[in-house]
Predict the structure.
Amino acid sequence: MLPELFEGSGVMSSALADRMEMIRVAISKLADRLVAKRLIERLDNEKDERTHILRLTESSCKLVPTLPAVANNNDAEFFGHLSNAERHSMESIMKAVIEKVSEPLL
């Protein structure tokens, strides 16, 4: 969520949910955790009192550019011992799981 908010001055939580392909409840719960950690702030939407604007805090604006390096280090630490074939197999399995859970419920 932090990188999605980095590009602008704030976004409605519903628009963020659509952009991230997440349900609104999940965005709301994630936003609650990030607000508690003071990484984002939830502002009243002057145009629509029923909605909120999510925006990065000043400290998280400094943090977001460092996240790709952190992710790369984590990948190397957790998956670096796997062969290319093992990483490819794991990626294929995870994509299959994501596709399955993305299917509409009957």
